[in-house]
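Batch job 17 of 40 flagged for manual review because the log was empty.
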Amino acid sequence: MKKEFNFFQRNGLTLVLMLLFALSLCGQIVTGLTEYNNDLADYGYPPANLSQYLGTGHFIETTFENWESEFLQMATYVLLTIWLRQRGSSESKDLEKKEEVDREPDPRRPGAPWPVKQDGFILRLYKSSLSIAFGLLFIVSFILHANGSLHHYNAEQAMKGKAGIDMGSYLAKSRFWFESFQNWQSEFVSVAAIVVLSIFLRQQGSPESKPVDASMQETGSG
């Protein structure tokens, strides 16, 4: 008899991650509002309330510069792991044999998604839909980060009695790219860390780890 699972058991990982996301975002908003109001006070401006703060470049910039780097990391990692290997890592495919993820989709397979049962463009699109989704999320986050950062920069300029600038001029400055690169480098080094550390270290029960008794040379978590 097939075992029944409740809603939390079926979706626990997503629910806990989204709860942690919500708590972290609330923490960011509360502390960000405090920092923003401290900056306003330094220039003799009255404090902003919560609704005002959520529309500021300060909030938009700090939120999406982090989202941007996360989605870049995931898009890059999904694509690189198609072709590149790391012997002994649970994050890598086998160096020699093909794996399940390499097989051609079979529309006769039980439970095959609707796009697999189609042909032509729909199937080709679905075969790359994960990297496309992450790529689009990166682009949207990049644009929102750039706009938020520009608005925050111009707000600072206004408080100093200086004129604002347009997007083209802002992108030519180092400030925006410094914000981006400091996040991008942290994402890439964290991925490199799990790729390399999973060669030698284990976490029993985690699909991100090889079995505890697997050899150092064994690649993959299966």
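Reviewer: the log was empty due to a logging misconfiguration, but the result itself is present. The chain has a mean pLDDT of 95. Unflagging and moving on to job 18.
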